[in-house]
Amino acid sequence: MSRPRIVVVGAGFAGFHAAKTLCRVSKGRAEIVVVNPTDYFLYVPLLPEVATGILEPRRLTVSLADALPEVQLVLGEVDGLDLEARRVSYEDPAGKAGALHYDRLVIAAGSVNKLLPIPGVAEHAHGFRGIPEAVFLRDHLTQQIELADATDDQAERDALCTFVVVGAGYTGTEVAAHGVLYTELLKKRRPRLRDQRMRWMLLDIADRVLPELDQRLSRTADKVLRKRGVEVRMGLSVEEAKHDCVRLTDQTEVPTNSLIWCVGVRPDPVVEGLGLKTEKGRLVVDEYLNVPGHPDVFACGDAAAVPDLTRPGEVTPMTAQHAERQGRRAAHNVAASFGSGERKPYIHKDLGFVVDLGGTDAAANPLQVPLAGLPAKVVTRGYHLLSMPGNRIRTATEWLFDATLSRQSTNLGLIPAVDVPLETASPERVRRHP
Fold first, then answer.
1. Are 371 and 379 contacting, i.e. CB atoms less than 8 angstroms apart?
2. pLDDT at 116 (0 to 100)
3. Predicted TM-score of the model (pTM)
4. Edge-to-edge strands of the sheet including 199-204?
């Protein structure tokens, strides 16, 4: 009897941990295939440290071949799922079409940048979901300060030194917190900019920073940001974006060349083409992570609207913590579907969250114990090292170097702005333009 083939779409937090767990629990009784645009798992929470020169990009990437040696990796972007024919269609990096048959399917396609119908945003803003965007932002921030140092036009210099971050959630808050420290560091190395203000703005239509997290974390982050001079503007957003300025919803015009879009994420577009029931764009599943009417199809992570059994009537938020746990639970339930183990519903316990604010600052509430400052920083970095599936020693070493040596700030200029458009279904890949 041939082994059942399990195809996992995506190798983010949910897909990676689903595949890893399946290897362990299936014990060779199933063929496991992962379809992903890249050959690595990306530890997204540390992207702000790539964007500000603390960590090198490879520290956040874990080779799928090394971490999942028993898995067949198919490089490609999934562009179609036929649930009736049990077929996954994809396009490989060379543009060649391919297809895979499956016996069980795990949809863990993740998410992409959330777009809003605001004039100019798609053309002039840049998101923050993958390595290309983080590397581009690092070079962009560096170049802006270099250009400001080279001009004597004060208005132009002010615009070059103004940075607007939209979205005060987890990502936007960390980008602003790390970004202001990075540009201040660049400024100190340029005597001509001694009296120049580095203006950072953090905007959100919510009433507080980190609206999805505990209010104590929100207050800590808000206090740190304001102390560093970040203009925290709640109840405000962008009404129009141009190449040299943005107009806010209060009609204020802010001259800037830097619009960083962190308003949140939406499920991968492949979910939309299934014709199945969704909730806020996420595929509806039951508490066992099964797609109703399709016992051979499971979904988890950002692509799935997983019922939150601790809060009846609600679904779990789109966080890495949930995606990782759901991936593991989906793996066990898939294995149970072909006779290995028992399926169980997804039930979670909130272990708390950590927010790295750069320098010696952080906000954390491990096991609901609120922490701030250096103790929170220690907990935050410890949490990340434990959560990373690889590169722990290299990452810790680079943190040590950053604390003891002068940070490198070379502008490599490897990724031009046109190659990291905001409107892309695959932010983990560079989009080359002719």
1. yes
2. 84
3. 0.94
4. 231-234, 199-204, 162-166, 259-261
Phi, psi of 166 (to 5 degrees): -105, 120
Q: Please check the confidence at residue 417 and state whether its pLDDT lies above 70.
A: yes
Asked whether the beta carbons of 164 and 245 are under 8 A apart, the reply is: no
Side-by-side strand order, sheet with 72-75: 72-75, 31-36, 5-9, 104-107, 294-299, 290-291
Average pLDDT, the chain: 94
Helix axes 215-227, 170-188, angle to 10 degrees: 20
Amino acid in the structure at residue 96: K
pLDDT band at 354 (very low <50, low <70, confident <90, very high): very high
Secondary structure (H, E, C), the chain: CCCCEEEEECCCHHHHHHHHHHHHHHCCCCEEEEEECCCEEECHHHHHHHHCCCCCHHHHEEEHHHHCCCCEEEECEEEEEECCCCEEEEECCCCCEEEEECCEEEECCCEEECCCCCCCHHHHCECCCCHHHHHHHHHHHHHHHHHHHHCCCHHHHHHHCEEEEECCCHHHHHHHHHHHHHHHHHHHCCHHHCCCCCEEEEEECCCCCCCCCCHHHHHHHHHHHHHCCCEEEECCCEEEECCCEEEECCCCEEECCCEEECCCEEECHHHHHHCCCEECCEEECCCCCEECCEEEEEECHHHEECECCCCCCCECCCCHHHHHHHHHHHHHHHHHHCCCCCCCCCCCCCCCCEEECCCCCEEECHHHCCEEHHHHHHHHHHHHHHHCCCCHHHHHHHHHHHHHCCCCCCCCCCCCHHHCCCCCCCCCCCCCCC
Please write the tens of the pLDDT for every residue from 153-184.
999 999 999 999 999 999 999 999 999 999 99
pLDDT > 70: what percent of the chain?
Answer: 97
pLDDT of residue 390: 93
Distance CA 335, CA 344 (A): 11
Q: How confident is the model at residue 27 (pLDDT cuts 50, 70, 90)?
A: confident
Please answer whether residues 47 and 138 qualify as being in contact, where contact means their C-beta atoms are separated by less than 8 angstroms: no
What is the C-alpha separation between 351 and 105, in angstroms, rounded? Answer: 29
Handedness of CA 290, 294, 295, 299 (dihedral sign): negative
Q: With CA atoms as reference, report the closest residue to 183 among 225, 142, 126, 139.
A: 142
Cα–Cα distance for residue pair 235/218, rounded to 1 Å? 15
AA letter at 349: K
